[in-house]
Structure to design on (475 residues):
């Protein structure tokens, strides 16, 4: 794995993450070993050796998941062990019954062998492991990394999902949502009359900053392919913004706090959502306009919340952001409720509160501050683009950082459990019916199974279990 230090391209990560479309990668983005490069040229600095790469971690997670056993699998294993004992005891009982009731030794032995063969615990023993192997492989290909089988099996019980906001329901990056130039003179008879002109002027001051707001502005400039002017006499206004000379003009890009401090009135028609962030552009001491940014909601979030509702699962927003932001995101997505201005240790308490109220809680998050809540939740789900601590704490990791995968996880967990139960019912039902037939319960009616027929039926029962497991898929 590595980090791009130079260049831009689209990479095919479908084999690794399940993302069908090529993913755009630019400077500072992570590159997964095994990705296929498109037409662009990239220079990548290695960040992880092959043994520590993402692919190696996925392989280890799959192996660990397949080796770990849930309660259902442990139950099936114990049932298979008991079936072996039952088959031997039933075989012996069958032998003595027929032999002591006047049948020949050959007949009694034949009945005993048929019982033991037909009750071979293969079908019952494979009923769950086959589903486990299939589900783990499918999940990994779909970007759902199962670290804990019990957590995955418990996903079918979820009644409430608690979502962290930043990086989970939202992209986690500021995006320019509105650019509002003010048609006024800049002091030299030249007014800032276009959105692009205001944006490129502001970008001149933001081009060397790593602040999230600056990153959002620069991304918009890049998308519009605008030329960024040079700056002179750059200076940071501590806690309020930046200033510099751009094309012989004194330019400032500042926060609302700067305007308040300098008693500069807001534009008469100025409006903004409380969930938005605004920076003002001042040219030659005159307010020239403002740029509105917001942490955009992921396109998939609304669909994910809607699908959860259809499946009778409640969704709650849990965030450290202010009440206005939390309310805006929650109402936009149609969530059942929200908790705002919550500190990391309080997130854990909110999860406990929901559990106390009888909810079976899943928590999704991507940051270090989400780790305690992820550990407390009945099912902890880490978003792949987040911190290593969050991924380490959670029982399941979503590689693609797509909220829709949370829905896929729950539906796939339910489908997997259904397959396990179907296989167990088939294997158990088969043995309950086959054992008496093999013992000769219908002998007086002229129906008698030979050892060869018993072997065929035993094989068929195992094949049925295998075929049923192979039909498992992510919807």
């Amino acid at each position: 794995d590595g980090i791009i230090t130079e260049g831009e391209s689209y990479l095919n990560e479908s084999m690794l993450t399940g993302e069908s479309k090529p993913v755009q990668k630019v400077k500072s983005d992570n590159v997964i070993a095994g990705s296929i490069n498109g037409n662009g040229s990239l220079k990548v600095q290695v960040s992880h050796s092959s043994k520590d790469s993402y692919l190696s971690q996925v392989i280890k997670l799959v192996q660990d998941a397949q080796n770990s056993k849930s309660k259902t699998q442990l139950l099936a294993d114990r049932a298979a062990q008991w079936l072996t004992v039952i088959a031997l005891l039933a075989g012996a009982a069958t032998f003595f019954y027929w032999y002591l009731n006047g049948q020949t030794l050959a007949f009694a032995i034949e009945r005993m062998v048929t019982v033991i063969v037909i009750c071979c615990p293969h079908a019952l023993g494979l009923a769950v492991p086959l589903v486990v192997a299939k589900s783990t492989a499918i999940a990994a290909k779909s970007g759902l990394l199962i670290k804990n089988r019990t957590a995955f099996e418990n996903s079918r019980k979820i009644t409430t999902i608690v979502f962290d906001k930043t990086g989970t329901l939202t992209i986690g990056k500021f995006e320019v949502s509105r650019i509002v130039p003010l048609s006024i003179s800049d002091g030299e008879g030249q007014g800032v009359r276009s959105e692009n002109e205001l944006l490129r002027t502001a970008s001149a001051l933001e081009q060397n900053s790593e602040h999230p707001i600056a990153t959002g502005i620069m991304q918009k400039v890049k998308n519009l392919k605008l030329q960024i002017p040079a700056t002179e006499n750059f200076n940071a206004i501590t806690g309020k913004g930046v200033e510099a000379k751009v094309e012989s003009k004194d330019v400032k890009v500042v926060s609302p706090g700067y305007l308040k401090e300098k008693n500069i009135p807001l534009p008469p028609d100025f409006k903004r959502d409380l969930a938005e962030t605004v920076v003002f552009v001042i040219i030659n001491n005159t307010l020239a306009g403002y740029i509105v940014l917001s942490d955009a909601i992921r396109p998939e979030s609304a669909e994910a919340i809607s699908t959860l509702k259809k499946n009778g699962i409640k969704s709650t927003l849990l965030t450290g952001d202010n009440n206005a932001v939390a309310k805006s995101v929650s109402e936009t997505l149609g969530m059942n409720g929200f908790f705002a201005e919550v500190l990391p240790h309080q997130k854990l308490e909110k999860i406990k509160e929901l559990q106390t109220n009888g909810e079976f809680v899943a928590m999704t998050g991507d940051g270090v501050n989400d780790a305690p809540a992820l550990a407390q939740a009945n099912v902890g789900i880490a978003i792949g683009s987040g911190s290593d601590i969050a991924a380490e704490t959670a029982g399941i990791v979503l590689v693609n950082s797509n909220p829709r995968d949370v829905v896929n996880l729950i539906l796939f967990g339910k489908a997997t459990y259904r397959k396990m139960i179907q296989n167990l019912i088939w294997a158990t039902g088969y043995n309950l019916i086959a054992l008496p037939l093999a013992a000769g319960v219908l002998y007086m009616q002229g129906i008698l199974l030979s050892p060869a027929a018993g072997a065929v039926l035993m094989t068929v029962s195992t094949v049925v279990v295998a075929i049923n497991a192979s039909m498992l898929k992510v919807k």
Remarks:
- The chain is about 50% helix and 20% strand.
- The CA atoms of residues 165 and 319 lie 6 Å apart.
- The mean pLDDT is 81.
- The radius of gyration is 32 Å.
